[in-house]
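Technical annex B. To support the medicinal chemistry partners, we prepared a structural model of the target in complex with adenosine-5'-triphosphate, based solely on the information shown next.
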Amino acid sequence: MAQYTPMIEQYLKVKEGAKDAFLFFRLGDFYEMFFEDAILASKELEITLTGREGGGAEKIPMCGVPYHAAEGYIQRLIEKGYKVAICEQLEDASVTKGMVKRDIVRVVTPGTVMDGKIIADKSNNYLVCVTESDGMMALAACDLTTGELYVTSVLSGAEWLRDEIGIYEPAEIIGDPALLELLRSETPLLAKPVVYTPWEKREEELARRQFGEAVWVRLEKERGQCLALLISYLNETQRRSMGQLSQISPYEPGNYMILDPFTRRNLELTETVRERSKKGSLLWLLDRTETSMGARLLRRRIDKPLLQRAPIERRLEAVDYLYNQFIVREDLRLALKEIYDLERLVGRIAFGSANGRDMNALKLSLAQIPALKELCMTSGSATLREIGASMDECAEIREDIDRAIVEDAPVSVRDGGIIRSGYHARLDELREASSNGKRWIAELEAKERLATGIKSLKIGYNKIFGYFIEITKSNLAALPEGRYERKQTLANAERFVTPELKEKEALILEAQDKMTDLEYSLFTELRDRISGQIPRLQNLAEKVAEIDVYQCLAAVSAEHRFVKPVLSDGYDLRLEGGRHPVVEAVLKESAFIANGSTLSKEDGNILLITGPNMAGKSTYMRQVALICIMAQIGCFVPASSAEVPLIDRIFTRIGAADDLIGGQSTFMVEMADIQVMTEKATARSLIIIDELGRGTSTSEGMAIAQAVIEYVHDTISCKALVSTHFHELAHLEESLKGLKNYSMAVQESGDKVNFLRKLVPGAADSSYGIYCARLAGLPEGIIDRAYGLLRSIEQAAYPGGSSIHYGGGLESQAAAKEVATTSIQQPESVIAETSGIPADSYSSIADEVVQLSIFGEEEPRKNRKGSANQSAVVTEVQENPAIKEFIASVRNADLMNMTPLQAMSLLNDLKMKAKDL
Ligand SMILES: Nc1ncnc2c1ncn2[C@@H]1O[C@H](COP(=O)(O)OP(=O)(O)OP(=O)(O)O)[C@@H](O)[C@H]1O
């Protein structure tokens, strides 16, 4: 083994304790890195790699960063998913003989970082700890920056762990190595990269002390063990007290709706599927919070919709009150606007990194509390009054800060200028001495100018030479010989001192040193005093966040005309005029077409939705799920009326966004999801499957789709929305009592297709896949060829020459034949022909029928069944002159040339006519 110098030996010894981290080894004014650390860091940080003699045969690779700029470099490494161990000199190098003692003072890891870019204002930075013992899995999630600490546990189950971790999106996961291995394979599910740190050491004693015996004894065993492991890791990395982790928030998973990571992504709850950005998500739409802690709480609520009626009602009550009280809402908003991030301020106070500005931010925030409390206490909402009553104003903390800290506090806490005069007698004395000294120097300058006659004579100060008298070279001749003692020569000036000046300098500097030391200790005393009040401040922060969330949800609900949902006693779901909140918000004014939904035992718990691509099927299905989630987080919902049951779990199989996962095929992913669904769904779940059975051959896909639907119907009997391109599945309506066919209406005119976005009863007969391909801009050559192929497929299937519109799912002529023979569905044009309606008149009447459904019906008609029924209605329409006249008057209305009054009168006429239809 190579013999290194004592310093390198010391380095290697310290490095032993930080094998998985970069070791920032303090040498004077630099943090140096050696060996592999240096090679990698020089690449990652783009800094120069040098070498150093270290006693071995070869030079040791080395690179370094100045200590005062280290923060930025550390953050860059953390952002890249590394850990950094900071090794400081523990003795004063100038007074130590031999090697200075050095040791690690903190290990910064992605899950324990306290500041920097990684810590976004409105989101959390979680470190998650997972353990398993005696058949129980426990999870603790901790955000050191805010002091939040959640803990929960269940009977072991990999899915549960995956779902729960998905909610926290941790930066780092620690815990049982075997569990970490299991989770590693799920990594692509998480929105951001995650660092895994196997950790098995548990320190129960430490955890007991951290949380207090009273709390500890009430914790379930597995949760306690999980926390003991977490605390051991935090202790090892932070090496300081963690006062911000004063309270544990245990929770029961069964109290919340379960949303797996796919569902959360598919429904775009907190980020969009494509860009993975917040913009375009439900959180983006709802987030009108004024404070960062409010924003984080809102996100947590979206992630964890409630399952119990009473707490949901409690939330809705507050939102309802504020929805109707614009002025109170505004007043609350104005007060909240002035409140800083209390949780993070408290985190910094506990961590010891809070400065004078943080103290003032805390003071200003606390100053808003009396007004906020008063607004809540005098409100008409029982929920808000209860919150108001429990708010602790922490007035003496505010006064304490106000007495101590100057208004315009500096960033540094070590350079003085932070404590108010009048706060501490000794500090005032020192200040007086220092300013007397300075005055004396100003007087000396004036006196010497007079005595020497040199007007440009000045007295300056620098850290190396202290105070000096400076005389420019041109004036040197005028200076009496021997008046001053020469100290320093510059290019165009000479600097001098006098014994008197040196004496005063000593006094001033001593006073200043003492002053800054005293200010620093007064500041830390104040910080420690406030540290002792952390639980009070954290409780207050929670209340503020909750009020913020209520005003936010009320404001969004009022702006977007959401309504208060009624939580149904049974299992029924009834929505009138339901909308997708985000699609509606991004579409231009009132362009969104509302659709009702009824899912009940009587009306059918399963909707089988057919319709062309682009018709709005996915949007519709998502909107039902979002409305349920919004109701269960305690928000109003986008509908004209809503009765919702308490859904225990939502499963979704939507779109192709998750195709990338772990190299599995789309079809395998779909089947794996369906498997979980069959195992976990209960009668209180909501299942959403988009294009069930795609991704395999048509006949097999259809067979699987039918079998799955039957299973959901017969065995799970929960609510389900299923969309499919297999129009042939419409026959299921006959065998499954609880299944109803619906389709998204379209209007064909000439070679154009108009998507009406209206859900109508009955199955659709075409997918208009090639039409959509044209809309997407595919070359005309491909489109023409596709239509040509389609015609030949149709001919093969219907040699008689009748035409049928096929869905995009058809893969081969053989499959087409198979479908044609197994189909029980008659295409409308075929029905029209056989019923004697000429083809051209059929298409125009069909237009009218679809239009009618928009003008005439909010709720889907219940007496219609499938396309065959639609064609029966066609005949009915053709024969009904009143309907024809009604449609003609709508068609002939010249809207562009009408006055508003004329339009009103037309509408009135139509309304009267409609009564007679
Ligand atoms: N109710 C509605 N009102 C207005 N526009 C809508 C409505 N529903 C959907 N849209 C618009 O239509 C587009 C297509 O909708 P969606 O993706 O739901 O169709 P789809 O039937 O699921 O299509 P595909 O089968 O191709 O996935 C959406 O991007 C949206 O802009």
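Notes passed to the chemistry partners:
The longest helix spans residues 499-531.
Confidence is low (pLDDT under 50) at residues 657-663, 801-874.
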